[in-house]
Design goal:
Blueprint lengths: L3 E4 L14 E4 L2 E7 L14 H19 L6 E8 L5 H11 L6 E6 L9 E8 L2
Parallel strand pairs: 4-5
Antiparallel strand pairs: 1-2, 2-3, 3-6, 4-6
Helix pairs in contact: 1-2
Length: 128
């Protein structure tokens, strides 16, 4: 594939701005930041940062699956959190999804996230 391909799936939340869920360029998939929206209702999970992180990663997984990738294909993850005090909880949930071949990543605390959520995660995946 020598051009970029736009990828969207109903199994993950629809974009809430002028972007797509993912772009595939060659063998690389760029997944937009996901927040804890329930795809079917577009309602936010607000029952705590662990539940939010699970929903975020389920959304990431839905996009990866739609594009033919898995968590083991992820080479880079970017985690944005509202409070660094939630780092350990988010890390615990994250480790349940990235079991082997964990990607490079960063985790940064930011002042505010879309819809005032506590966590947002984007990933880049690659496979030969």
């Amino acid at each position: 594939m020598s051009h970029k391909q736009v990828l969207n799936t109903g199994e993950a939340p629809a974009a809430i701005g002028p972007y797509n869920q993912a772009i595939q360029a060659g063998n690389t998939l760029y997944v937009s930041g996901q927040i804890p929206l329930i795809p079917e209702t577009m309602e936010l999970i607000d029952s705590g940062v662990a539940d939010e992180t699970h929903q975020v990663l389920k959304n990431v997984q839905a996009i990866l699956t739609h594009a033919g990738y898995t968590f083991s294909d992820v080479v880079k993850a970017s985690i944005f959190i509202a409070d660094m005090n939630d780092f350990a909880t988010i890390n615990e949930v994250y480790a349940q999804y990235f079991i082997e071949n964990q990607p490079a990543r960063e985790c940064v605390a930011v002042k505010t996230l879309p819809k005032n959520v506590n966590v947002e995660i984007s990933v880049i995946a690659w496979k030969a």
